[in-house]
Amino acid sequence: MLYATFILKENIYLNVFVMKEYEDRDGGDNLIVRVEQKDKEENFSEWRLPDMACYKSYGFSELDLFAVEDYLTVNESIIWDDWREHKNARIA
Q1: Mean pLDDT, the chain, as a whole number?
Q2: In the chain, what's the furthest Cα-to-Cα distance?
Q3: What are the counts of helices (DSSP H) followed by strands (DSSP E) for the chain?
Q4: DSSP 71
């Protein structure tokens, strides 16, 4: 599910996708979020929420990843709310 597009820096736009929800071994809910550069999909990072862990990345600098992490941290509750609303709409 395409969640949002935001500007990383001048002329660099990133698409944010919620890929899936899963339950960890402790029973907690987690989301997998993929962030891709809009014009270069080979530049991406994948994140696990709620712990803000980037477990896969290609084509981003460390500063870029900090900016993505900041975006996800600020918008995490909105991402969760929108994901649940999307999931419930599919069921209905």
Answers
A1: 91
A2: 41
A3: 1, 5
A4: H
Indicate the domain borders of the chain: 2-91
- Laid out side by side, the sheet with 29-37 consists of 2-9, 12-23, 29-37, 40-49, 53-58
Those residues with Cβ within 8 angstroms of residue 89's Cβ, 6 or more apart along the chain or in another chain: none
Reported confidence tier of residue 35, pLDDT bands at 50, 70, 90: very high
CA-closest candidate to residue 53, choices 77, 36, 32, 35: 32
Token pair listed for 49: 């929420």
Identify the CA nearest to 17 among candidates 38, 29, 33, 28: 33
